[in-house]
Amino acid sequence: MTTKTGHWKPDPFDLVARLGHYRESMAATFVIYIDESGDEGFSFSEGSSEWFILSGVITRKAKDLETVKLIDKVRKVLNKPPKKPLHFRDLKHEQRLPLVGEIAKAELRTVSVLIHKPSLKETEIFQERYRLYFYAVRFLFERVSWYCKDHKTSQEVGDGTAEIVFSNRSGMSYEELRNYLKYLKDKTGYFDVRIDWSVIDVDGANKITAYSSGKRMGLQIADAVASSFYYAVQSSQYGYVEDRYARMLKTVVYSRAGRYVGYGLKFWPREVDEKLHSEPQFGWLRSKEPRSKLRGINDKTAQSLRWS
Questions:
Q1: How far apart are CA 109 and CA 111, in angstroms?
Q2: H or E, element range at 75
Q3: Which of 151, 246, 248, 254 has minimal CB crowding within 10 Å?
Q4: What is the rounded radius of gyration, in angstroms, for the C-alpha atoms of the chain?
Q5: Cα–Cα distance, 3 to 59 (Å, whole number)
Q6: How far apart are CA 214 and CA 10, in angstroms?
Q7: How many helices (H) and strands (E) are present in the chain, helices listed first?
Q8: Nearest to 216 by CA among 29, 28, 59
């Protein structure tokens, strides 16, 4: 704008508008909620779980609030208090089904890392503080970054990055996690790290945060997803798994060219492959095709374990 003396003076309202547009253009395009199920212990005779599951739920930031409000809908169905967080483990089977059913219909995608701890060779390494959790985060970030990179459209607002929201783990340093991620970014080629760093912004302020599930409803969805896959692989004290929740979630599990294992489902380590092919509790994963006709996860498992 121009003053009475003819000098140009910036319009404060125009500056505010420009600043708002700049902030919007630099905003994240996706939101990823992360939670876990199982534990990181190795004392199996004393009650440690055989499986540790880390799951991520991917939403589009523009529709994030609309998406996560499915929790409110389920609370009403279950006659739960409006602000009470839904914890999957605390729900009865018949209460879990409406929650999983709503997630399966929602505009979101899920990625889960399933680690079979007894199959790990050098267990002493993974008993170091946070080591197993950080490994799981790496595998998870690889896959969520692939999905986000492939599914950003030119019409969407945002810079293509993802806002990462962890379920708060008491005692864990998230600054230490950021430093680990920065280390991976620096050593990407050396360690064959497959994270797309254009999506995972380890340097961006407030791009990686941690909240309690009561503060962010999306974390309650991530809890339900992680728990669903935990029950699908972890045998109960009576020797049974419950795979119904996992099968219901198939509609929202990240897949590429019809392949789920290796994308929306990452099993690790490789030594668990034989269990997935042979043991009856993993029948929900296996293809109807004979194993001899299929290539393998490491190619073998990735192609032969197709939900049918």
A1: 7
A2: helix 70-77
A3: 151
A4: 22
A5: 47
A6: 44
A7: 11, 6
A8: 59
In three-state secondary structure terms, 94 is helix
Comparing C-alpha atoms, which of 261, 271, 300 is closest to residue 118? 271
Q: How far apart are CA 146 and CA 138, in angstroms?
A: 13
pLDDT given for residue 90 in this prediction: 97
Nearest to 109 by CA among 227, 4, 255: 255
CA angle 285, 228, 130 (to 5 degrees): 100
Distance CA 49, CA 39 (A): 6
d(CA 256, CA 192): 21
Series of mean pLDDT values for 10-residue runs along the chain (308 residues): 52 42 63 97 94 98 96 97 95 98 98 97 88 97 98 89 95 91 93 95 87 96 98 95 97 95 96 91 73 42 49
The answer to whether residues 234 and 50 touch, using CB atoms and an 8 Å cutoff, is yes
Residue 304: both structure tokens together: 């032969």
Global pTM?
0.86
What DSSP assignment string belongs to 193-223?
A: ----TTTS-SSSTTSEEEE-TTT-HHHHHHH
Edge-to-edge strand order for the sheet containing 109-116? 208-211, 162-167, 30-38, 51-60, 109-116, 265-268
Q: Write down the pLDDT at residue 17.
A: 39
Between helix 93-105 and helix 217-233 the angle, nearest 10°, is 110
Q: How many residues does the chain have?
A: 308
Cβ atoms 189, 132 nearer than 8 A: no
Pairing of strands 109-116, 51-60: antiparallel
Q: Structure tokens of 207?
A: 């791009």
State the sign of the Cα–Cα–Cα–Cα dihedral 179, 129, 167, 143: positive
Cα(36)–Cα(262) distance, integer angstroms: 18
